[in-house]
């Protein structure tokens, strides 16, 4: 159909449109009041311009004998189901007269669909994607299934579909991405049909969620704070330029020269370095202007006052951002320092030192097993297994040992009490000698390790085994590199084994992990490669009492330190001396450690009588950057800060964040 003629004169358009509007409304009302279809049709025809009238009549008379009857059909359409040809005619008339679909629908009290409207205005049909009608036949099912199989991976998870147990497969990409990236699938099904089909007929293909362990501070800094800072900077920039076009010139010159020397933050102006400089600069500009006399021109005083006010507002906003930037910088700096120290220890371990890193793994659930064991799965309730991982690194008789221990257990307490017992057990398993005098323990900031209970456990270890014990904490949300590696392996071992064995309890799990460990070790045999040891750990009954360091007798606040050193006291009467170095890199300088005061044990009745089942808390992601926490840390750790600023985009921190993201992805809960 040819496009309806365009109407060039806007006045004419408005006039005619309003005429049409009132006439159509009147026609509708008239028809409804008197059931006078002929009259209504006449009115409608009456409001059309000669061109549209011809067009409408042409359309109407194309079919049948034309004339009044079809005109009446037009009116009939206003209330009843119209025939397709009338529908088309009405749509064409509306396109010509009313020109807006929504308006036409409103006026006629009916609905002209988007497709019909497009056809009537000569825009051609909407493109239909795929064939929505074909959703379920054997061939489609099979083709889609083959495609999904190609783009998914094995998991040990099972679900019940229509009374049958099926193996869940994890899609490597989202369902949408899988459709958009395949011409074949698009030809087969439109997107809506794709979703429906997958939901109904391929429900065991799932995109399993990754549980992300990425640091919330770094994440929020990137996603929430930086964009807002960018806006703030450009706003304050243009505000000042409006008052004085060359306002920023001097600082630009300065910044560019720094940049040439490679001395600017990789994030350029979105950084503490720039914001600090900008605030200083604005303060100077303000002072310099205030010192000048107001020019003797009408309105000069008002203009200057406005300028001052805008400047003060911008400075206040930047100062706010500056506080956040300082807190975040403190965090980045800490990440860099603790990890730097840790990696250095890993690479250059001295012969008298023992290095241990530990962490809890997310629980695994059993039973796991092959498809044949189907019924059995659903007859048994699922059970969780705790893993506490240790990485131990030391020299013995000139040989470097790297050992991983997987302590698996039914007991689900991820707490200090469990960690303390397991740690004691671990020390007995290491081949240590008297030459080992220094113990370094690296842990994350989880409450299970950063606690006065765990600290006291190390005091006892210091008394009995190592004259010097360090407790290092990796930065909040940035811990456990070595342990994550071993947990990744453990997951893979279990999944592999479950392909043709049933893992129903801890002892099955031990078998599974040992088989996997054997496999892994055969590829890179110890002592050149690391060794893996699986331990079914059944601690003694939960102690009735909790021994912990009595921090009321000390200046220590464990939540604000990343490095504590415990040393055996030369006089046996005293327990030990604990020094707080705040950061691990400061522990090489005796002067930088502060003795926490009297080291005294406090014994308390345990809160819980026995070991229990516990769940890992997941944190909400939607909150803002929690500046309060960072601020408190900065306040407590100010004295230990480095002079150099740490940048978020520092290659080291970027690398750490990337590794962590990758690790988090790998840790996707397949089990
Ligand atoms: Zn972070
Ligand atoms: Zn932890």
TrEMBL record:
> Could you tell me the superkingdom of the organism this chain comes from?
Eukaryota
Name of the protein in question: Uncharacterized protein
Organism of origin is Polarella glacialis
Organism ancestry? Eukaryota, Sar, Alveolata, Dinophyceae, Suessiales
